[in-house]
Amino acid sequence: MRIVVLAGGIGGARFLRGLKQAAPDADVTVIGNTGDDIHLFGLKVCPDLDTVMYTLGGGIDEERGWGRTDETFQVKGELAAYGVGPEWFGLGDRDFATHIVRTQMLGAGYPLSAVTEALCARWNPGVRLLPMSDDRVETHVAIEVDGERQAVHFQEYWVRMRASVDAQAVVPVGAEQAKPAPGVLEAIAAADVILFPPSNPVVSIGTILAVPGIREAIAEAGVPVVGLSPIVGDAPVRGMADKVLAAIGVEATASAVALHYGSGLLDGWLVDTVDAAAVPGIESAGIRSRAVPLMMTDVAATAEMAREALALAEEVRA
Amino acid sequence: MRIVVLAGGIGGARFLRGLKQAAPDADVTVIGNTGDDIHLFGLKVCPDLDTVMYTLGGGIDEERGWGRTDETFQVKGELAAYGVGPEWFGLGDRDFATHIVRTQMLGAGYPLSAVTEALCARWNPGVRLLPMSDDRVETHVAIEVDGERQAVHFQEYWVRMRASVDAQAVVPVGAEQAKPAPGVLEAIAAADVILFPPSNPVVSIGTILAVPGIREAIAEAGVPVVGLSPIVGDAPVRGMADKVLAAIGVEATASAVALHYGSGLLDGWLVDTVDAAAVPGIESAGIRSRAVPLMMTDVAATAEMAREALALAEEVRA
Predict the structure, then answer these.
(1) How far apart, in whole angstroms, are the C-alpha atoms of residue B169 and residue B257?
(2) Which residues contact A9 (CB under 8 A, 6 or more apart)?
(3) Residue B237: pLDDT band by 50, 70, 90 thresholds?
(4) I need a labelling partner for A236 at 20 to 30 A (CA). Which of A175, B37, B263, B275 fits?
(5) Which NCBIfam families does the annotation name (chains A, B) (predicted)?
(6) Distance of alpha carbon A183 from its chain centroid, rounded?
(7) Mean pLDDT, residues B104-127
(8) Nearest-CA neighbor of B138 among B206, B207, B201, B91?
(9) Contact A93 B104 (CB under 8 A)
(10) Strand runs (DSSP E) across A22-155, as ranges?
(11) Side by side, which strands form the sheet with B128-131?
(12) What is the pLDDT of residues B40-69, one digit of tens each?
C-alpha cells in the first residue's frame, strides 16, 4: 500500500511513528512543510523536516518533541557571548551539525530535496521524506503592534512571541511561485491513500496545500483522502493552532477544520470521541466521519489512530 | 611606544602574552597570518587569528595551545555521523561558534578585518589584531606521493599528515594578488619597533611578508626590526618548522633563519643561549644578535624574552 502523508512538525512526526507501527509494510511518502524554515546564524534550518527525520530516526528529544536527544547548548551560549542572536530559537550542538551539513550542501548547489535525502541516509526514517518544494517559501504572520501592522516570520510569532498577540493574517510568502519538489506530484498520483495527520491546518498542511499543484493533485488523485482533527474539545491538542485558525476566519473546532478543508479535498475525517456530536454535521457536508480517541499519548495509541484512519479510507473506497 | 608584531599561531600568541606583560602600556598592533585559513564544513576558519584572540582573551586551551578551554566536540561527532569530514581537524563546539559568526559576517559582505575587529570586541585581547590581508591567501605545500607531485592545503600537510613527508615547496597561493588589510601599512609606518616572534619563518611570518607591500614597508619603516629565533639547538621549539625550512633551502638553525630574513629586513636577532656560538656569524652578516633564554616555559619567562627583544631594539636604535 502506498500512503502519502502531509506533515508539519511534532504532530505529524508522532503520527507517522504510529502509522509505521500500524502499517509496517506500507510504502510511505511524507510531504513535509518547509514554510517554517528559517535562516539563523547564516545556516538554513528546516524545523519540520528535521522533527520528522529525528522522530522516525530515533534521534528526537522525546520530552520537548523537537531537537536532538542528549543535546547540549555550547554553540548557542558562545553565539550569545558574541552578542549574536536570536537567543529565542533553541538550536543545540547536535542539531547545529544538521544545519551545517544542509547549508554546506545547499551552498554547493544541491536542491533541498537532495539534501534531505542525504541527511535521511543517516537517519533511516523508514519513509521517503520530501520537502513540499525546493523553492523558498516562508510563512509570515501579520500582527498589530502599538496599532501598527507588521509581518514577522512564523518562527518569531510562534517561538519568540508564543502567539501571544492575535494573528491578523498568515501568508506563505513565495508559495505562489514555488514548484512542488521532484517526486511530490508523482507520489500523490501513485498513492493508494492520502492522510492529513493532526498537524496545524493553517501553517503546516495549509502551507503545503498552498504550493500550486499539490492541492489539485490530491483532489484529482481519485483515492481516499482522510484527515485527523488537531482540535479536540474545541482546543488544539498542542501548539496554538487556534491563533492561526482565527486569522483565516476558521473556528477552532473539529468540524470547522473539516469544513475548511472541504469535501472537494477531504473524503474522511476523524474527530476525537469528545467531539462525537460533530460527526453528523461533518457527514452532512459530504465528509465521512468517525469519532475515535485522538490523543497521541504513546506510540500504541497513535498506531490505533492510524489504523482508524486507514479503516476509514477503506470505507470511503468501498 | 607603538609596537608592530607579525604573528602566526601558538608561538606568536604566547610571545604576545609575554610582550603585554613586559610592556603593558605599549600600543601593540598584531599583523596575523591568514595563509593557514581554511574552509571547513562551509565555514571560514582562521586558526592563527583565533589562536591570538583566544590566547590574549583568556579563552585558549592552555594544554593544547589552540582551540577553546572547556571545549566539547558534539558538532564534530555529529558531522562524522553524517559522513561529513574532514575528521582530522579538531573543531570544538565553542570554536564552531566563532566560525559561524565569522562566516555569517563575511557572507553579509564585511571584510575579514572588520569581522576580526567584531570578534575581538568580545575577547578584548588588549592588542589591535589585523589580518595580513582581507584577500584570500592559501598556503599550499607541494609533496610527492608515490612519485607524483601534488599540492595539499597547509592544514592538510601540517595537521593531517603531521609533516610526515618532505615538503618540496611552500606556495602562498593568492599572495601576489593580495593587498595588505586596511591599517597594516599604516601601523608599520607608525611603529617605533617591529618584532618577529618565534613564529614559523616560512608559513607564518614568511606568508605575511609575501603580501606585496608589507616586506617593503617594514624595510623602509626606519625603526628597529628585531626577531626571536624559533629554532633552538638546531630544532624547532615546537611544530615542524624544519620541514618547511628545508623546502625553501634554509637550514634549521638559528643563524640560517636570521640570514634568510637578511640584514635588509632584520636589525636584531635573539638566539637561545645554547646557540650562543652563532652570534658572531649573525653579527658579521650585519644583524645585531644576543643569546638569551628563548624557551616560553611560562608567561614570566616569555615576558623576559620580550624585554630582551625590546632592549635589543633600543640598542639598534642607539
Answers:
(1) 17
(2) A33, A36, A47, A48, A51, A52, A65, A66, A199, A204
(3) confident
(4) A175
(5) F420_cofD
(6) 18
(7) 97
(8) B207
(9) no
(10) 27-32, 38-40, 43-45, 128-131, 138-145, 148-153
(11) B128-131, B27-32, B2-7, B193-196, B225-228, B268-271, B288-291
(12) 999 999 999 999 999 999 999 999 999 999
C-alpha–C-alpha distance, residues B32 and A89, integer Å: 35
Domain residue extents for chain B: 2-133+177-317
Banded model confidence at residue A195, pLDDT cuts 50, 70, 90: very high
Nearest C-alpha neighbor of A273 from the set A227, A233, A225: A233
**Interatomic CA distance for residues A263 and A219, integer angstroms:** 10
Topology of the domain comprising A2-133+177-317: Rossmann fold (3.40.50)
Residues in binding site of A? 50
Q: Chain B, 30-89: which have a CB under 8 Å from a chain A CB?
A: 41-43, 72, 74-79, 81-84
Give dist(CA A280, CA A271) in Å, integer. 11
Q: Which residues of B touch A84 (CB under 8 A)?
A: 101, 104
Residue with cell 528546516: A46
Tell me the residue length of chain B: 318
Q: Which residue of A has its CA nearest to B44?
A: A104
Answer yes or no: do A72 and B82 touch at CB < 8 A.
Answer: no
| Backbone angles phi and psi of B229, in degrees to 5 | -65, 130
Q: Which residue has the cell 505529524?
A: A12
Rounded CA-CA distance B151/B141 in Å is 5
By DSSP bridging, strand B27-32 and strand B128-131 are parallel
The number of residues making up chain A comes to 318
B119 touches chain A (CB under 8 A): yes
Q: Are A293 and A301 in contact (CB under 8 A)?
A: yes
The DSSP output letter for A222 is -
**d(CA B27, nearest CA chain A) in Å:** 25
CB contact under 8 A, B93 and A98: no
Mean pLDDT of A83-99: 94
H or E segment to which residue B32 belongs: strand B27-32
pLDDT level of residue A183 (50, 70, 90 thresholds) = very high
The predicted pLDDT at position A241 comes to 84
CB under 8 Å to B63, separation ≥6 — which residues? none
Amino acid identity, residue A68? R
